């Protein structure tokens, strides 16, 4: 790993981390949106993760024009997890955010999240986002812009289930990420979600900005349609490490119950959907293995009150989706449901909002 210049020791309000790999077509728009942020005293840390295209040339050009804001890490390809860890290690911001290099953000992205974090003394602050079709530029959905009350994780850890698993619409208190548990063998997929799970034991307070500040591009070439056995195995192994970490930390029973519910949400629903996109996948076998894994390692998934009818009625939105997803899973109707869901997305252009 090497950088074009050594960053100064000057403290920043916000560090924005941007992993870059094969995105030369989209990178300038992303960087333009970050350089134009209304919040002063931020830094933009870009990781060129051994990208074979012109990413590094684009990054160096922006670094030369914006030396006070841009920091470029040029390294061999090791994947997003390692790249983010390298950037977190040198980040000087009080808070850290993430932006995917093929997405872009509103000019007030940093300012709105930072002000909300400071005014609410939040460890984690979340904003809304748009899903945008990359070819037409059409906004497909606007998500997480409904008013949501700030909450204490100690009192209501189940409310963490309403957060999407991506880091690009959030601001984290930097100290949480700098002290976060690091995988010896990072998962090959679902690493975003697991980063959140590893941070949550240290999150005391979560707040929201009910504005869409991120433009998340839907690209046909970025959708993974096949998942080989090694990726599935690495996901399961990493999730077991997450559970071991929770046990080592001796987290509360309520937070452990949340983890079991989150395991069902991400492995029982999201992972099964990803596997179902592979036409050659044996869904019956995948679901059998999935349930065995959940029953053995996350036994509360089936009995936890976090995903329940009462919470579906009380909170609506994602809790309603999770409740019906759990019913479908327990009734062995997932193959049919996943087929219908893929038809909705691919043929009707309809996705379930979070």
| Element order: H for helix, E for strand | EEHEHEHEEHEEEEHHEHHHHHH
CATH class category of the largest domain: Alpha Beta
Tally of DSSP β-strands: 11
Shape from CA axes?
Answer: globular
Rg:
20 Å
What's the end-to-end separation, in Å?
Answer: 37 Å
Largest sheet: 11 strands, mixed
User: Averaging pLDDT over every residue, what do you get?
Assistant: 92
CATH fold naming of the largest domain: Spore Coat Polysaccharide Biosynthesis Protein SpsA, Chain A
Tally of distinct domains = 2
Count of DSSP-assigned helices: 12
The name of the CATH architecture of the largest domain is Alpha-Beta Complex
The name of the CATH superfamily of the largest domain reads Spore Coat Polysaccharide Biosynthesis Protein SpsA, Chain A
Identify low-pLDDT runs: none
Share of helix, binned = 40-55%
Question: What report would you give on this structure?
Answer:
The protein is 43% helix and 19% strand. The chain has 2 domains: 2-222, Spore Coat Polysaccharide Biosynthesis Protein SpsA, Chain A, CATH 3.90.550; 229-346, no CATH class. Strand 7 and strand 8 (139-143) form a beta hairpin. Helix 6 (191-199) runs parallel beside helix 7 (229-249). The chain is an alpha/beta fold. Residues 15-173 form the Glycosyltransferase 2-like domain. InterPro entries: Glyco_trans_2-like, Nucleotide-diphossugar_trans.
Distinctive features:
354 residues, alpha/beta, 2 domains, eleven-stranded mixed β-sheet, 11 strands
In short:
This protein is α/β, with parallel strands linked by helices and 354 residues long. The chain has helices spanning 27-35, 55-65, 80-90, 109-120, 174-178, 191-199, 229-249, 253-276, 283-297, 309-315, 317-330, 334-346; strands spanning 2-3, 12-20, 42-49, 70-75, 93-98, 104-105, 124-133, 139-143, 151-152, 170-173, 205-218.
């Amino acid at each position: 790993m090497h950088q074009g210049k050594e960053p100064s020791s000057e403290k920043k309000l916000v560090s924005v981390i941007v992993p870059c790999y094969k995105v030369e077509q989209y990178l300038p728009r992303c960087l333009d949106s970050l350089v134009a942020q209304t919040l002063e005293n931020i830094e933009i840390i870009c990781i060129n993760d051994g990208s074979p295209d012109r990413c590094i040339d684009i990054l160096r050009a922006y670094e030369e024009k914006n030396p006070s804001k841009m920091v470029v890490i040029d390294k061999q390809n090791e994947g997003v997890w390692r790249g983010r860890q390298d950037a977190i290690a040198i980040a000087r911001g009080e808070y850290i955010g993430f932006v995917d290099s093929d997405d872009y953000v509103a000019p007030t992205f940093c300012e709105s999240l930072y002000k909300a974090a400071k005014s609410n003394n939040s460890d984690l602050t979340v904003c809304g986002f748009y899903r945008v079709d990359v070819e037409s530029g059409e906004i497909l959905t606007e998500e997480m812009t409904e008013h949501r009350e700030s909450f204490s994780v100690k009192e209501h850890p189940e409310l963490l289930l309403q957060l999407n698993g991506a880091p690009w619409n959030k601001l984290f208190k930097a100290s949480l990420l700098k002290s976060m548990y690091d995988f010896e063998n990072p998962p090959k997929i679902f690493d975003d979600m697991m980063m959140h799970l590893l941070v949550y034991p240290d999150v005391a307070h979560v707040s929201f900005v009910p504005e869409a500040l991120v433009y998340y591009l839907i690209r046909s070439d970025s959708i993974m349609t096949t998942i080989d056995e090694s990726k599935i195995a690495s996901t399961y192994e990493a999730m077991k490490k997450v559970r071991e970490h929770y046990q080592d930390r001796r987290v509360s029973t309520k937070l452990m119950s949340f983890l079991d519910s989150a395991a069902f949400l991400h492995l029982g629903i999201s992972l099964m959907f990803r596997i179902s996109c592979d036409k050659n996948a044996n869904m019956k076998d995948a679901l059998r293995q999935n349930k065995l894994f959940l029953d053995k390692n996350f036994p509360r998934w089936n009995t936890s009150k976090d995903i329940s009818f009462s919470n579906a009625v009380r909170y609506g939105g994602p809790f309603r989706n999770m409740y019906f997803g759990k019913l479908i899973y327990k009734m062995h109707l997932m193959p049919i449901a996943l087929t219908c869901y893929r038809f909705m997305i691919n043929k009707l252009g309809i996705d379930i909002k979070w």
